[in-house]
Amino acid sequence: MTATDTGKSGPVMLIDIPTLAQQLNVTERFIRRLINERRIPYLKIGKFIRFHPNDVATWVAARRIET
User: Fold this and answer.
1) Residue 49 in contact with residue 42, Cβ under 8 Å?
2) What is the rounded average pLDDT of the residues 47-66?
3) Among positive and negative, which fits the CA dihedral 13, 14, 19, 24?
4) Cβ(45)–Cβ(5) under 8 Å?
5) What pLDDT does 51 receive?
6) pTM (2 decimals)?
7) What is the pLDDT at residue 10?
8) Average pLDDT over residues 38-53
9) Is 64 within 8 Å of 45 (Cβ atoms)?
10) How far from 58 is each of 18, 21, 42, 46, 47, CA to CA, in Å?
11) Confidence of residue 9 (pLDDT cuts 50, 70, 90)
12) DSSP conformational letter for 15
């Protein structure tokens, strides 16, 4: 996690693929497949793929299945 995003509330650490995979308890391959299929929001900074924590939280919340 090297890139930052400066917002009104201060800098936000962007998440890389291995960190996101660990947070979601899935494999890196699964995250890469989501990226390839454009099923998850991501940022492309040069050759690097990063995720904004708010985008990930919104994406996860949208997939919640209510009982």
Assistant:
1) yes
2) 96
3) positive
4) no
5) 98
6) 0.82
7) 80
8) 97
9) no
10) 19, 16, 12, 24, 24
11) confident
12) B
Token output for 51: 């995720």
The end-to-end CA distance of the chain, in Å, is 35
Distance, CA of 27 to CA of 20 (rounded, Å): 9
The residues near 17 (Cβ < 8 Å, ≥ 6 apart) are 28, 31, 32, 35, 49
pLDDT at position 27, please?
Answer: 98
Amino acid at 43: L
Alpha-carbon distance 33 to 55, whole Å? 17
DSSP 51: B
Find out whether 60 and 52 touch, Cβ atoms under 8 Å. Answer: no
Say what the pLDDT of residue 6 is: 56
